[in-house]
Amino acid sequence: MDKIINNDMSEYWNGDGGKKWVELHKKTNEFILPLGKKAIDLASIKEGELVLDIGCGCGEASFDIANIVGVAGHVNGLDISRVIIDEARVNKKQLGIKNVTFQCGDAQNFELEKEIYDLIYISSD
Is 70 left (phi over 0), alpha (psi -120 to 50) or beta? Predict the structure, then answer.
C-alpha cells in the first residue's frame, strides 16, 4: 500500500465505513451504477487501453471497463480501503475476470508511472 496522506479517510474506509460499504454495496449500486455506466460511455474507452479506476470500490465499474478494453487491455482499480479491495478481489475471482488488478492506496499520492495509462476514471461505485 502506498503511503497514506489522508489518515482520517483511511481510518474511516478501513474501519466501519468500509465494512458498511461492502455490506450495502449491492443495494447502493442499484442507484449509482447507471450513472457510472453513463460516465464510462462518455469516456469513449477503447479496446486495448490501460485504465486506472480511482476509488474502484468493490470493482463493478472496473469490471465494466475490463469488458470494453478486452484481453489486450487492462484495468487497475485503486481504493484507499483494504476492506473494500478485498471484496473487489473476491468479486473478480467469482467472475473469473483476468484483465483487472486491484490495489490499496491513497489516490492523493499514488505514484503514476509517466504516460502509462490511456485513461484515468474516477469510479462511482
Answer: left
Give the integer Cα–Cα distance in Å for 3 and 18.
19
Question: What domains appear along the chain, each with residue ranges and CATH number?
Answer: 7-110+117-122 (3.40.50.150)
CB 60, CB 97: distance < 8 Å: no
Question: Is the distance from CB of 104 to CB of 42 less than 8 angstroms?
Answer: no
Residue 112: pLDDT band with limits 50, 70, 90:
confident
Q: pTM of the full predicted structure? A: 0.88
Nearest Cα neighbor of 33 from 69, 59, 72, 7 is 59
**Could you give the CA distance from residue 45 to residue 65 in angstroms, rounded to a whole number?**
8
Give residue-wise pLDDT tens across range 54-106.
Answer: 999 999 999 999 999 999 999 999 999 999 999 999 999 999 999 999 999 98
C-alpha–C-alpha distance, residues 47 and 24, integer Å = 32
